Every structure is written in C-alpha cells, then in structure tokens.
Pyruvate, phosphate dikinase
Amino acid sequence: KQWVYRFSEGKKEQKMLLGGKGANLAEMTNLGLPIPPGFTITTESCIHYFDEGRTLWPALHQQIDSALVDLENAVGKSFHDPANPLLVSVRSGAAFSMPGMMDTILNLGLNDASVAGLAEQTQNPTFAFDSYRRFIQMFADVVKSVPRIHFEAILDTVKNENGYEFDNQLTLEDLTDLVAQYKAVYQRETGETFPQEPLEQLHQAVQAVFSSWNNERAVLYREIHNISHNLGTAVTVQSMVFGNRGNDSGTGVAFTRNPATGEKKLFGEFLMNAQGEDVVAGIRTPLDIDTLEEVMPAVYNEFKAIAEKLEDHYADMQDIEFTIEKGKLYLLQTRNGKRTAAAAVAVAVDLADEGLITKEEAVMRIETGQLDQLLHPTFDTKALDEAALLATGLGASPGAASGHIFFSTADAEAAQKDGLPVILVRRETSPEDLAGMMSSEGILTARGGMTSHAAVVARGLGKCCVAGCTAAVIDEENKTVVIDDVTLHQGDLLSIDGASGRVYAGTIAKQNPTLGGKFSTFMDWVNEMKVLQVKANADSPTDVKQALSLGAEGVGLCRTEHMFFHKDRIPVVRQMILSRTLDERKKYLAELLGMQRQDFQEMFALLQDRPMTVRLLDPPLHEFLPTADADKVALAEAMGSSLAGLEAHIDSLHEVNPMLGHRGCRLAVTYPEIYRMQARAIIEGAIIAAEETGSTITPEIMIPLVCDADELRYVKAEIVAEIEEVFAEKAVTIPYLIGTMIEIPRAAVTSDEIALEADFFSFGTNDMTQMGFGFSRDDAGKFLQEYEDKGLLKPNPFHSLDVKGIGKLVKLSAKLGRETNPGLVLGVCGEHGGDPESIAFFSSVGLDYVSCSPYRVPIARLASAQVAI
Ligand code: ADP
Ligand code: MG
Ligand code: MG
C-alpha cells in the first residue's frame, strides 16, 4: 500500500487522501510553480496509526526513508551531513481546512552540529541560531506538550534586559544563550535531552501531527463545523525555505480578493526577516501586501501573476502563503479562502460575471447557513452618532456586537452560560481561545492583522471581530483594558463594529441590514433557478413588509390568534369567550370584526396580487383568559358578574391536555360564529383592499386541525354561508379559496376524502411531528437531549423533518389528495419550511411551496434553488 506520495505524484482532487495542503502543494508543483520539494504521508496513515496502537510501522518507515532520499537528491542537502543539512517542515493538513487547529514544526533536522554547519554555510550564524531556538520551542510544544509560556518567559526576559521591542533585534549572543536555556527547559520538562538525530526528530514529529488530529481543539472545531472524526490528517514533509535570513527575506499571507468584502484586489500582509507563524500570530504588526511592491517590485509582480494564475486554475478566491528567501519567491500553500457571507456572495457573482464559473455554480457556492450571517443587524446609524468612540482597530470580520467584556475563554464561557452577551477581549487569540470565541458576540484584539488567528477564525464562525486595536492596552491578569484615559473592567459594556473596526463604550441600538447590489443579483439568479415557491409566515402588516423585503412571494401562514393577543383587544376577546349567550358573544365578535378586518385589509393591500393564507383561530380558548388577580377583577367588573362566578367559569374551561383539547376547528364545531366572524373580516378586508389597490385579491382561508372530511364539510359550509352573505350585502364577489391544514395523522391518511372539500393543503409539520411521534412540543426538549446524547433520533425531528416517518405521512397525503383533486395546491408552514434539508425533501415529493418565518426566506429560496440545480 502506498502511504507516502511525493509532490510530483499528487493532484488537487486528492484532498481526502493527501489533505488540502498536500493535494494543493502537489497540484502547484505540477503547475510548475516555485514550491520547495517534499512529500505527503496520507490521511489513511493517520487512521492506521490510531488503529495500530499509535506506533509507526515498517512499511511506513521504508516509504518515508525512500521519499527522503529523493528529497535529499532534489535539494542537494542531507539529514546526515551537518555541514550541508537538510531542514524540513512537518505540516499537518486535513481534507477540510482547519486553520490553526493542527500543529506545524519548522526547521526540523537542526541539532548542535548542523546549526554550526548552517551558520558556516550561510555565513549567517544569527539566522542559524534563530532557526534552532524556534525549532526547539516548536518541537517541545507540539511533540512533548511543554507549555510555550516557559520559552516565552525566557525570551521576554532577554528582550526586557536589553530593551528590545522585537524578536529580530536579538543578537547572536542572545540567540546562542536562548538555545542553551531552551534545551535546559526541554530537559527539565521532559526528562530527556533534546533529540539530536534528524530521523528520530522526524518520526516523533510525524507521530505528534497524527496525534494532534485528536487534540481537544481539533475535536471541538470538527464538532462545530460538522466534520467527521474519522478522516484523519495527512502529514506533509517539505524542505525549508527561510524568510528569516535577513532583510532580503520575509514571509506573508495573501488573499486574491478581499475576504471581508469580496473586492477584487490582492489583500494580505507580510513581514520582512520573519518566519512562518510570525505573521499569523500577530507578534509584530505586519505590513500591507501593497507595500511589497515598493520593497521588492519583482517579487511582488511575480506573486501577483501567480495569484491570478491560481485563481483561474481553482476558479475560486485563493488564500496563499508565501516566503521570500534572499529575494526569491516560494509558495507554501494555497487553498480556497475563507470569507464572510457578504464576500462569498460578491465573489460568487463576480466569478460568474468573469466567466470563471456558471451562474448555477455561483448559486451552489453559497451555503444556506452563510446567508443567515448576511441578515444579521448592524448598528443603527443614528445611535452611532451619539455613541462614544473609544478607538479604531482593523475591521477584521463584519457585524455589530455589544456585550460585557471578558478577558479569558473560561470567563467568557461562564458569562455566556449566565445569559450575558460577551465581548472577548484578548491581546491576541490562539487556537485555545476557540471555545471563548464561540461563546462571544464579538472579539476584540490589541495585536495582529487581518490574517491573524482572531480574524480568520471569526470570519469562519461569522462572528464580529476588531483586530489589531493598538490603542487598547490590555491587562489580562488584572482584567482591565485601558484606552487613552478610559479604563474598563471585566463585565463593563463595550460595542464593536467589525466592518469599520470602531470600538465604542456601552451598548448601541441595532438596525436590520440593507441588502442590495451583488446580493440582489445573486438572489435574482436564485429565483431563476428555484422551483418551490417561498412564502413567509406573517401575522401583522409589519411582518408582511419585512417578508416582502426579504423576497417572500406571499404569506403562507397568517396566524389570527396573534391578532387576538393585542393588548387593546384581549379584554374584548375575553368577554367574547366568557359570554353566557350566543347574542352576547355576537356582540363582542362584532367588535373584534372591525379590528380584524383592519389588519387583513392592510396586509392584503401590501401584498396586492400575491397570495395570503389566513388560518382561522387555532389555540384553545382558555389560553386567552386572565391569570392575574387584578385582570380577573377588572374583567368581572366589565362583564357585570361576580369574581367567584367568573373564576368558576374560567375553571370550567381548563383542560388537562390542551394540545389535544378543544382547539382548531373543534372550536368552530361548538361556536361556528367565531369562524364566521373571521371569514367575514377576511373577505371584507380583501374587498376593500382590492378596491384600494386595483389588484385581484384571492384570499385563502385555512381551517386548522382537521381530522375528518365530514368535520371539514360542516365547518366549511358555515364559512361559505357567511361569505355569501357578505357578497350579497356588498353586491360584489371576489375569488377565494378554502383549504385545510394537514397536521393530524388521521387527516393525512384520509386525504383522498378531505381533498374533495379543500382547494389546498398546508402541512403543519410542527403539530404533525408532535402528534406523529406522540412528543409534546413543549415538553420534548427535556428528553430529546438524552436522545441526542445517545445518538438516537438524529437530527431532532422538530428541527429537521423526520423523512422516514412524518415524511411518509406527507408523501402519502399528497398522493391521496391529488388522486381525488388533481388541482390541489400543496404547501408547508412551520419551522421545517425554513430548514434546507427539509426543503429538499418537500421539493422531492412535489409540493408547491414552503412558508417560513421572514428572516428564513432568503435561506429557503437558496435551498430551493440548490435542490433544483
Ligand atoms: P497552518 O495549517 O497552521 O497554516 P502550515 O503548515 O501552513 O500551518 O505552516 C504554518 C507556516 O509555517 C506557513 O504559513 C509557512 O509560513 C511556514 N512554513 C511551513 N512549511 C514551511 C517551509 N517548508 N519553509 C518555510 N516556511 C514554512
Ligand atoms: Mg498554512
Ligand atoms: Mg397546528
């Protein structure tokens, strides 16, 4: 079995086997780009390593040895020749990029003899010892888990004693001294001397990279991003090139487009005389990539040309790592760049316009979850004018966040558990901070640039981040941050704007995002491709406006009980419910009629010829009744009855299991006058709106909780009679439809009969899940967590439709319904209507539309287009 692939043997399609890094290094090698030679040990080896009790096996040893010989020949250096030493990096690389999650070791191969050889050979002993001290620290950290703080403390002491600001001010004496001290730390912490044999160093490093697949932060990252734990990481061994050889050397990272906005322009940073992680770790604040054009014009132009070539080749925005050694450019990595949702949309649209991808590919490139991010609010512009600006850093990941400041992952997590919105404030972040970042609304760092750990991870998580806010002096020990003359303590309120990089005191009001430009173009393409109609659930004119602005094609569910709960109306509703006689009830219903008609009229006028489905009253009546004593007293007074009498009446309406009680159309069987009032309000509202707007309005009246065709027939006849009365009174008629919800299993299996009485079905999948499983929606949370922990019933059937069971009911009902009523319109309302996976199912069984909450509409539209492509 082949465990090891030379760069010349791989290609970009082999990400699963070689990891993203290894596959792309192979691809770039074969494109003829300047890549330091190397080889990749496969992800299968990593899995095998865990299966084999965590040791390397003979076949792997042999293949590594043979690849090493080729590598030594290719670069003309050797592991066994201290005068001309081969140095390599040992790099992790999983199939899906996990930035900062796994560990990389640089300068491997150095030892006490070869460091002298390297010094002699390069005539640059400072560089040689700088490389050695870095290697000892990385090896100790990655392979032996020696805390970095031990080394950093020593380094800080040396820098402080000499008054240095930066690492590259260290002299040869400092560095030789550091190497000695580092080796002593290594010995003290591990009980072993620092390994001198390069092959031994390599074997240990390979094992450490394999093991890092299962370190805590890697496991957490995979859980958050839904990546399988069984893939393993590849290990890439690559000959070193050196950005720390002096001022004609350097290292950097650049994106081919702006990862925050999508703008087509090189975006990145570099540092001269630096190695590897120096840029990403935010140790010195790096220079903008544009400056490279002044510092080294030829290298800049070569890099720019390669960047364009790579973007064309991969047909996507690239994130490229490079190093310059003595004026010569090398590429060390390329991958599809992580980007914000806004940038993702902009880049997809631009790439399609540039002809690199098709419109369909552009639509497939955006994950439905990313759109969610785009719809997040920003700070209210007026509130911003009044806010106290403290400082400005780099707008590293857009979004607006206000919260209480905390200085460590542990404190941030604890505060979030207590329900506080958190802003994580750190000098810089490292992979250990992932959990803290997850717990925060936003992240503020004092150090680091646009490609720092904080910036990259925040963009990936869709969290707002301001990085490199140098004005903020952060004391993580004492939990304070000082900005000019303002001192903030743990728990104080702070607001950050991840687009502008501004930092404000206190909290700031927010507003909904305005979506235009590339987003509209993108959504236009989505609309061209999607098949399912997407409507919104909306209960008020305000909801309707929001739904329309998010592209809803109508209202699929207007819940009338929400109109009843309005504070001015609830007293009338209560009097109506507690009426002793039909006449009394009709009197109150007449009052409610005017109010409901007004709502419907406004909503129909906003929608014009777009459809609206209105569901008649569904919840049990006692939900509307007062519980507070003061309310009861007031009600008794208004109704002229005694408090005791009123309480007895309320008690008599109490139900043990209201979810299965006197609700939905069952109410209308007892009190037809309630539904008649609602039907009248809908039709009258529609007539007025039609006259006002000149549109043809076709109200859709929906009867909930039907379980039987005769029941529906009875309720429908009452409604139709009322509508005929309205038409006669007004001497006008308008078209209308009457349909039903299918949410009770019995209704689903008798749909052939029910469809004879219905113009449309709307699947109420929330109730259908509740009744199909026999899980109370309001109580299931408690025990479904157990199910989830034990791997039962995944995913939660209230979040994503249970295709196997409830889905079967939907499918059967659709089939039976259309058999007897071929024109039957079929839709879904409820949470599942906004869930991409459920949408794929609904589309596959031939439904006509889904309806979901307004802010899920763009997501549902995208999901609907993606299943159609
Ligand atoms: P990560 O996955 O965390 O980005 P990498 O394997 O890309 O880790 O390594 C981190 C950095 O180390 C790279 O960006 C690069 O600057 C440096 N590096 C890795 N391999 C080499 C090499 N062969 N020569 C010089 N620098 C290297
Ligand atoms: Mg990298
Ligand atoms: Mg229901």
